[in-house]
Amino acid sequence: MTRSNEWKIASTHMTDSTLSRVGSSTATTSRAHHDAIVSATRVGKRFETPRGPVDAVENVTLSFAPGSFNVIVGPSGCGKSTLLRMIAGLDTPTSGELVFGDVDGKSPTNALVFQGRSLFPWLNLRQNVAYGLRLQKLPRLDRNDRADELLHLVGLRAFGRSYPHQVSEGMRQRVAIARSLAVDPDILLMDEPFGALDEQTRLLLQEELLRIWEQTGKTVVFVTHSLDEALMLADTIYVMSAQPGAIRTVFEVPFARPREFTSVRSDPKFAELFTRTWDILRTEVNAARAQQEQEIAG
Ligand code: ADP
Ligand code: MG
Q1: Residue 120 CA to ligand 1 centre (angstroms)
Q2: Distance between CA atoms of 254 and 263, rounded to whole angstroms?
């Protein structure tokens, strides 16, 4: 996949918590992992809580190739968001090692997109998209041009002057994606970004995200509850186990690209892959439920 130059913008250190350069005490750049943009070796995260330690993530070993589309699925509470936050540099592993490849001699930058209410209600859509660029001290005219370009990319060029409350949830989520792309991150981290949308909007946004990904060549790490969504989007699906979350199984998704909903769904391999993935996931979801029931009972 080629990275189009049109998308390159000098990235500087971001102070906004959702737009940050990767860099934590355990994050290092290593030649040995130069093929991967992120690689985790036996990464774990333990939270100390008043009720005792909670192992949110344990023994996660994986690596993401530059430009790849990676989807993480797993039962609720298994540590998906924790893993994403560690990749974002918002949290640090308590065991193991998270190593970042280098992009033009630097540690990769990232942006995190999550579900719902992430826009500033007092800024219009264009200002929301331009927010990170303002932090980067880009001149106003350049910011506006860039924001308009991105609004165009997500099909909202005509809505720049609208405010978040004046548009639909699906449109707000598209703006959130545009905003994260504005700072040209190397890695796009998405935590159930379409989870609150109705199915029709969700299907349209999946296709749109794939188109944007193909155009920009970002590395994507996408968390979802939905196996359909995972199969539609992913190069590779990582199924996590019940808490503490480890990588239970990895599936390569063979569908040709560019993908469309109808062609993916009508592919005979879809049903087979869905069943294989669900077989594994179901076991983990049941294990997670049993754990939760025990916690409530105890
Ligand atoms: P998921 O995103 O897969 O639903 P999370 O990563 O949000 O799961 O959480 C995994 C586990 O870690 C849960 O048991 C959660 O309660 C716990 N956890 C997450 N963040 C914290 C925190 N800051 N302090 C204590 N426990 C936490
Ligand atoms: Mg989560």
Answers
A1: 26
A2: 12
Look at ligand 1, atom 26, and give the residue with the nearest C-alpha. Answer: 47
Ligand nearest to the CA of 85: 1
d(CA 78, CA 223): 12
Ligand 1: centre distance to CA 68 (Å): 26
Total domains in the fold of the chain: 1
Residue 256 domain boundaries:
8-297
Dist. CA 16–CA 120, nearest whole Å = 13
Residue at 2 is within a domain: no
The predicted-structure confidence for 76-134, as pLDDT tens digits, reads as follows: 999 999 999 999 999 999 999 999 998 888 999 999 998 877 899 999 999 999 998 98
| Torsion angle defined by CA atoms of residues 125, 129, 131 and 137, in that order, rounded to the nearest 10 degrees | -130
Structure tokens at 161: 């002057």
- List all residues whose CB is within 6 A of at least one atom of ligand 1: 47, 49, 54, 56, 74, 76-82, 243
On whether residue 227 sits in a domain, the answer given is yes
Residue 210, token pair as written in the block? 């794939």
Q: Ligand 1 centre from 207 Cα, in Å?
A: 30
Sheet order of strands, 187-191 included: 19-21, 109-114, 187-191, 219-223, 69-73, 236-240, 247-252
Q: Mean pLDDT of successive 10-residue segments in the chain (298 residues)?
A: 33 32 38 74 96 94 96 95 96 97 92 87 96 89 93 93 95 92 93 90 91 93 95 97 93 95 94 96 94 84
d(CA 133, CA 159): 19
Task: Compute the distance between CA of residue 134 and CA of residue 90 in angstroms, rounded to an integer.
Answer: 21
The secondary structure of residue 11, as a DSSP letter, is -
Q: Kindly report the CATH number assigned to the domain that includes residue 100.
A: 3.40.50.300
